[in-house]
Specification:
272 residues; alpha/beta; nine-stranded mixed β-sheet; 11 helices; 45% helix
């Protein structure tokens, strides 16, 4: 069974140090421990965040690689820099405010080996404040065939718990600039390039949610970027005109509705 993998995280100055530390600890507590842990510091950090980085680098000097960028350049660019530093072909993404379940990686490595896939994520449970307070669950289609169909209108993987083969990412051009949709854009290019995907039905990660998350997904500016991205999917031949109309139209409606209604819509319709 595959046991060698890298963890890839990116942190910038607006993150919270206590969330960051809990996220790191959840990956260090995996049933299959990481052999390589890459943290990209996307620009100067606060003292509290820097203290966390230094703490783990000092404690696990052979495990942690710290990549420091002079200025904040955005998540996509930061992940590209970190990906180049990853020692192993299997790379597990982790955000700085989420909490991975202890068997997350064990399940993902098993799927990569047994199903011979290049991208695997799983179900995430969104929580507010504490993991005892689950507010929503995002379940995605499992099989590659279902993922290909789903991806024409919606993001087919949960980026916070994605695990992928480094070579497949690099072969597809890695993360590219497409504000708010860098991950979705990468998955589409990977799938078009022949990469195989799978989603684990079990919950493998707790994702921190709250009012701010739904606020970020509202407004005309967000809707405009979403429509532009979905039009690009049509132009590159991945989705149809029908897919574009349905996905773009739905995105516009959801983006311009009041935030409290958008929260309900996400929890009742887009989540389970």
């Amino acid at each position: 069974m595959i046991t060698d993998y890298s963890v890839l995280m990116s942190v910038y100055h607006k993150e919270k140090a206590d969330y960051f530390e809990k996220s790191i600890e959840s990956m260090l507590s995996q049933t299959i421990k990481p052999k390589d842990f890459v943290i990209v510091c996307d620009g100067p950090l606060t003292d509290d965040l820097d203290d966390v980085v230094k703490k783990y680098k000092n404690k696990y000097s052979d495990l942690f690689q710290i990549v420091r960028l002079e200025k904040c350049s955005g998540l996509g660019n930061a992940l590209n820099k970190g990906l180049k530093a990853c020692k192993y072909d299997v790379v597990a993404r982790m955000d700085t405010d989420d909490i991975a379940k202890a068997d997350r990686i064990e399940k993902q490595l098993k799927v990569i080996e047994e199903k011979n896939v290049d991208i695997v994520s799983g179900t995430v449970e969104e929580f507010d404040g504490s993991t005892d307070n689950i507010v929503a669950k995002r379940i995605l289609p499992s099989s590659h065939e279902e993922i290909m169909k789903f991806a024409r209108q919606r993001n087919p993987f949960n980026h916070p718990c994605i695990c992928f083969k480094k070579k497949a990412v690099l072969d597809a051009g890695s993360y590219m600039e497409f504000p708010l949709f860098e991950d979705y854009y990468l998955w589409v290019r990977m799938l078009k390039n022949g990469a195989k995907g799978y989603n684990i039905e079990d919950t493998i990660l707790y994702m921190r949610a709250g009012v701010s998350m739904y606020n970020r997904r509202g407004g005309f500016a967000y809707a405009k970027k979403a429509v532009k991205f979905r039009w690009h999917l049509k132009k590159m031949g991945f989705s149809s005109t029908k897919d574009f109309v349905k996905s773009a139209g739905g995105q516009i409606v959801v983006s311009i509705m009041p935030n409290k209604f958008r929260q309900v819509f996400y929890k009742k319709v887009l989540r389970k």
